[in-house]
Amino acid sequence: MSIPHPTIAAERLPALLAAMPKAELHIHIEGSLEPEMTFALAARNGIALPWPSVDALRGAYAFTDLQSFLDLYYQGAGVLQKEEDFYDLALAYLARAARDNVVRAEIFFDPQTHTARGIAMETVVHGLSRACRDAREKHGISAQLILSFLRHLSEREAFETLEQALPVREHFIGVGLDSSELGHPPEKFERVFARCRALGLHVVAHAGEEGPPAYIWQALDLLKAERIDHGVQAVHDHALMQRLAHERIPLTVCPLSNQKLQVFPDLRRHNLKALLDAGLVATANSDDPAYFGGYMNDNLTQVFAATGMNSHHAWQLAAHGFEASFADASDTSRWRDQLGEVFERFA
Ligand code: ADE
Ligand code: ZN
């Protein structure tokens, strides 16, 4: 998408990044659970927490890798019990995202984390879906849901989860694949993804976050993933980089997540700029903002400051977000027009 756009001076970049309309395509709703809400929901549901205070819980957010984060993330999700809890969680995220001028959010949820605790699929999906609907009214943000299978569980369990979700099929637009990547390659889920595609669902998959480029190849060739979540390990495979660029397969990159989970412990070494400069359809996203220290605009301002990206990169990231989104073409073209207007205003 090389639509002409003005160059904006470096000192105006933070304001430009904040003001431009954006799509967030990689956000786990359970990862937007702020410690304050963890404690509020625990009190509401009569659950005892192992942390003495909000600060103690936040203090536990020191991760060495993906698994060390996931252990805490699944534990935190245990306070979500009632439809109202899922509603409050999603509405809080969407209000926060709208303040960052996110106009479109495609939200992952992990039903197996909840159904394994005896929570009904309908409880989860109805709460989240109602929040998406109300957020459009209250905050002017467009939001839809993507059901994500947990890859550390079996394909049979993914099939069972899909069966449970069929009665609420109208409430989600696609499926994804997340959780512990290493040792759980995409090939493990080839048949269930084929079934999801046959049902007309969009398909995306986490690949190449910690795992090797081979996992990205599998996500493309076996799962037919339309987008790759993370995908930052693609830089180690020249042929893969060429394919991703040539086929315009989007990567939903999450800078602060990669920093916190030690994929790039130093944000200055993050490869988002390199991915864009290599012609890839990379986007910027927050992943699990409550755990990784920042929502959309924090991700943008911090990675731009750390890696010296410019206003052309800002344009690319925003335009790629709309190109990669599963929203209606009429919406994406309107948002792209709004992006152009913001750049003109800053010029
Ligand atoms: N679930 C929530 N966040 C995740 C991440 N960054 N990678 C894999 N699974 C996740
Ligand atoms: Zn993720």
Protein model, in words:
There is one protein chain. The protein has 347 residues and is an alpha/beta fold. It has one domain: Metal-dependent hydrolases (TIM Barrel, Alpha-Beta Barrel). The chain contains 17 helices and eight strands. It has helices spanning 13-19, 35-45, 54-59, 66-76, 83-99, 111-115, 121-139, 155-165, 190-198, 213-221, 238-246, 255-260, 272-277, 289-292, 296-307, 311-324, 329-346; strands at 22-28, 102-109, 142-150, 174-178, 202-207, 227-230, 251-253, 282-284. Strands 1-2-3-4-5-6-7-8 form an eight-stranded parallel beta sheet. Strand 6, helix 11 (238-246) and strand 7 form a beta-alpha-beta unit. Helix 5 packs parallel to helix 7 (121-139) and helix 16 packs antiparallel against helix 17. It is globular, with a radius of gyration of 19 Å. The mean pLDDT is 98. The structure holds adenine and zinc ion.
Q: What share of the residues lie within helices?
A: 40-55%
Structural class: alpha/beta
The parts where pLDDT drops under 50 for at least 5 residues are: none
Q: Using DSSP, what is the number of strands? A: 8
Proper CATH architecture = Alpha-Beta Barrel
> Under the CATH scheme, which class?
Alpha Beta
